Amino acid sequence: MNRLLKLLLYPLMQIYARIYPVRYAKKIGVAINGDVKIYGSSYSMFSTEPYLVTLGDNVYISVGARFVCHDGSTLPFRKEFPDLELAGEIKVGNNVFIGTGALLLPRVTVGNNCVVGANSVVTKDVPDNSIVGGNPAKFIKSTFDFLEKAKNNSLKIGHLTGNDKVVAYKQIFNKK
Q1: 8-state DSSP, 31
Q2: pTM of the model as a whole
């Protein structure tokens, strides 16, 4: 009966995670310590140990980012060492953006005021005020340097939303 119930709930949980990604993350055990925005579904964002993930305040997580708190590479060795297990927490500080497709691995802390680039694989701690990217993720520049360049290149429409933003983009890029 338990298996049938899981089978019936599976599509409902996927829908719930798409409509309410932050609520779903909390429901499965992710520690959320402030305002968090998750774009897209959070259904497969957190691995089998979501309770090992802590997210700070003012955190933005893009579509397809993943938090994997365990290391399955020990599985082939379990015949000889049945209790072999590697896992660890993932902690994300305040004022953080995690790009599309980024992968955060066990025992990683992302500091405050950081950006993790799209499709980056974070295998080591990210210091405060850092922009990282790549596989494995490496330091690219300080958040201060990034922000100065972003301010100089800004389209000045970040305050707009919805159709107003679409209209502004089309006007800036001469699209009808």
Answers
A1: E
A2: 0.91
